[in-house]
Specification:
It contains ten helices and no strands. By secondary structure, the chain is mainly α. It starts with a helix and ends with a helix. The relative contact order is 0.14.
Length: 217
């Protein structure tokens, strides 16, 4: 429970925790941030770590001189790309074993063929868009690996999506994070960055489900 309480507090007050870490350990903050982004995007069982809010706060800290902007963007971009590659590899390794369950309702050869066809056709957009969606950005590369999306195609969109995600949000934090209103309402902004994309995903899933039921009916 103490670990969970700390995690929630870290997510909601990531600015204060990072400032304290920089004050205590200096440039070691880059290693910490690299590790967080890599684990969030690279380990399929860790989708709850902060991503968007962390990048925004990093940008804000760069804006006031506590961190270096080019170094932060380059390192975190690298962490995001390598994390996705790790997740893809895990899915690619597990996939053939999972889809040998011929009697499974969801994990069978037909499901594999459908997933593979989807990722070959829409996988690029999915990988890029998922970067901005909590939870989805952790699972999308894993599913791409399971579905055997072409590695070269996955890597191209992994690098591009990672650049847009890290560069875009860190830059937004750099320019807007120091505004007094933003600093005053940062906790609410963090909640919005977590909840709004999540609600969009839920709404899309419900819409697809109801549409499927209507088609069957």
């Amino acid at each position: 429970m103490e670990y969970l309480a700390f995690l929630v507090d870290f997510i909601l007050h990531v600015d204060k925790h990072l400032e304290a870490f920089v004050a205590a350990y200096g440039t070691w903050v880059y290693a910490l941030l690299f590790l967080i982004i890599f684990i969030e995007t690279g380990v399929v069982v860790m989708p709850f770590l902060p991503g968007d809010s962390l990048l925004f706060v990093v940008g804000a800290m760069c804006g006031v001189g506590l961190m270096d902007y080019p170094t932060s963007v380059a390192l975190l971009w690298g962490a995001a790309v390598l994390g996705n590659q790790s997740n893809y590899t895990i899915g690619h390794y597990i996939g053939p074993r999972v889809f040998q369950w011929e009697q499974s309702r969801f994990f069978n050869r037909r499901a594999f063929d459908q997933a593979h066809a989807f990722y070959e056709k829409y996988g690029g957009f999915t990988i890029v868009a998922a970067r901005f969606m909590p939870f989805l950005r952790t699972f999308a590369p894993f599913v791409a690996g399971v579905a055997r999306m072409t590695r070269a195609k996955f890597t191209f969109f992994d690098v591009a999506g990672g650049g847009l995600w890290v560069g875009g949000i860190v830059t937004a934090g750099y320019f807007f994070g120091g505004i007094p209103w933003v600093k005053q309402h940062l906790d609410k902004i963090i909640w919005a960055m977590i909840l709004v994309p999540g609600l969009i995903v839920i709404a899309g899933a419900l819409k697809a489900r109801f549409k499927g039921q209507a088609t069957v009916a």
